[in-house]
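Subject: for your reference before the review

Hello V.,

The reviewers asked for a structural picture of the protein, and I figured it would be easier to keep everything in one thread rather than splitting it across files. Below is the amino acid sequence we used in the manuscript, unchanged from the supplementary table.
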Amino acid sequence: MYTPKEIAENYLSACRTKAALPLGRMFLLACLAGAFVALAGVASTAAAATVGDPSLAKLVSGCVFPAGLAMVIVAGSELFTGNNLMIMGVLARTITVRRMLRNWLVVYLGNFAGAVLVAALCVSGHVFSAFGGKLAASVIAIAQTKAGLTFGDAFVRGILCNFLVCIAVWMANAAKTAGGKIAAVFFPIMAFVVAGFEHSLRQAIALQPENITVHTLTLKRASRIVIEDQKENDYADVAAMLEKCHLLAEAGYRPYYLYRQKNTLQNLENVGWCKPGHEGYYNIYIMEEVQTILSAGAGGSTKLVADGGKRMQRIFNFKYPTEYIQRFDEVLERKKGVAVFYDHDLGTETSG
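And here is what came back from the structure prediction:
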């Protein structure tokens, strides 16, 4: 492995080579790099498309995406984000600012052309139809997330991503073998994918569920923020979260029910969204308290309603699974209350 001093000297030499490339060759190498990264993007998105847990999906995606930069470095192509490190050459007066900007412009355009080519080929070959269209939904959700960023957010996140790409390039230059270079780029690139610059709501939409309920923040008595009495916390992120619900509307979802919980912050509501024709009537009935709800399982609560809601009774199950299983006979005994409730309501009409 090279020392940091040797890495710097080697990269300054590479800066001179990059800056002196003929335009045609520079553009072609940039197209290849754009294609490599685009292919890695397709592969990483496909790998995570059917993973239900958002955190695990990011990890899976992050483990695949480094293949893009690995191909760029080992193949010797030109990537704009990696070439941002050429500023070293300017500061060391190895290359001129004009030469650096020339390289950046040509390489940026070449990367874009290569990525567009891969996108076009994937669309033509119906690659995105995999997993019953879930891959296409994931690709669209990611694109919408990036397109929906403000300029400030995109700029700052671009800096963070480029920093990790540049450190990956620097680390790759420390290795003397192809295997060492591939290993060196893995963790920085995985980090920028997993550190994540996508919202969990986008990921939920990409799974195409029929119903999505957006919950606001309710303070539970045993929660840390209640115990610590965090009066200085204005919970502005809660309201900001609800502002992102426009993404649901843009994806074709419509709000159809809402409800408040005790100690909900900022007078906000939990809102249920669904695709047209897929309203969950249970959600509506349970909020209106005009419908009997029969519940089974640990933590369940049966609600019996009669006389147009004038008479109600609840039958609770044990909350914890162990208790529910061990005391199941008691649960069954409680359920007899259903018959008692309706026998009282219907009187002798149920006899015989």
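For the response letter, the relevant points are probably these. The chain has a mean pLDDT of 82. The chain is about 60% helix and 10% strand.

Happy to draft the paragraph if you're swamped.

O.
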